[in-house]
Structure formats: C-alpha cells, structure tokens
Design goal:
ATP-binding, NDK-like_dom_sf, 41% helix, 18% strand, nucleotide-binding, ATP binding, 4 strands, 4-stranded antiparallel sheet, Alpha-Beta Plaits, globular
Length: 148
C-alpha cells in the first residue's frame, strides 16, 4: 500500500472544513494512519517548502502556513498519491473541477485549503518530516470490502 501526506492549511481549518476533507478521503476507501493538529513555526515551514525556496512566492507561502493551525495527515491506500491529488484538484482553484476539494471550497491560489504530496518520493519525505515518531499501525476490517 502506498502512502501520501495531506495537510489542511490554515484557511481550511479556520473555515471548518476539516471533517469534510477527512470524510472525502475516508469515503474513497483510504486509511488514516497519522493525524496532528498543530501550529507550525517558521523554520519548520521553510523545511517543508524547501523545494520552493527559489520561487518568488516562497516567503508569502511560509507566512501563510504559520498564520494558524494546520491538520497534518498520513493516508494509505492503492494509488493514494495520484488519487489524492485528483480528490484535491488543481493547485489553482480556478482550474479545479467541481467535486474536488479546491473546486468546491477555494477561490484564490494563495488560499487553496489543502496540500497533498505530488509524488511517492515527496510523500516519503513529507511523512518523515511531519511524523518522525512514525504512524499508527492498524488495519481496517473494511479492507477486503474495498480492495480485491
């Protein structure tokens, strides 16, 4: 089973979308393996977004992520990275299809509600950064009803 890192950003938390977002991943059949409700400090945010440090929007992105609490999660399932990105929608909400999280809840690219790993490799890095203590090891009894 593949894993991905999903973060509900400060705007998603402030708008009360945490339950709705978790529900969408659960209803798809993915397993929640880790969850934290935390406020991120600047140095940690800079580590998380290190690959974007040369971009002109980097400082604004860091300031935004540290502006309020976030919900960090590990989700597990078959093709969860690719499918998770489809559930989330395009980075620019204007290009996100209705029915996606960003298509339904976001308007501005700078307040796009959620972050999701864009590859299995980045998911591994993000999970290691956000969950150094590891994750919850459990198996759902629904597994045979979801997967062949």
């Amino acid at each position: 089973m593949e894993q991905t890192f999903i973060m509900i950003k400060p705007d998603g938390v402030q708008r009360g979308l945490v339950g709705e977002i978790i529900s969408r991943f659960e209803k798809k059949g993915f397993y929640l393996k880790g969850l934290k409700f935390i406020t991120v400090d600047q140095s940690f945010a800079e580590k998380h977004y290190a690959d974007l440090s040369a971009k002109p929007f980097f400082n604004g992105l860091v300031e935004y992520i540290i502006s309020g609490p976030v919900v960090a999660m590990i989700w597990e399932g078959k093709n969860v990275v690719t499918t998770g990105r489809k559930i989330i929608g395009a980075t620019n909400p204007a290009e996100s299809a209705p029915g996606t999280i960003r298509g339904d809840f976001a308007i501005d690219i700078g307040r796009n509600v959620i972050h999701g790993s864009d590859s299995v490799e980045s998911a591994r890095k993000e999970i290691a950064l956000w969950f150094p203590e590891n994750q919850v090891n459990w198996h759902s009894s629904l597994h045979p009803w979801i997967y062949e």
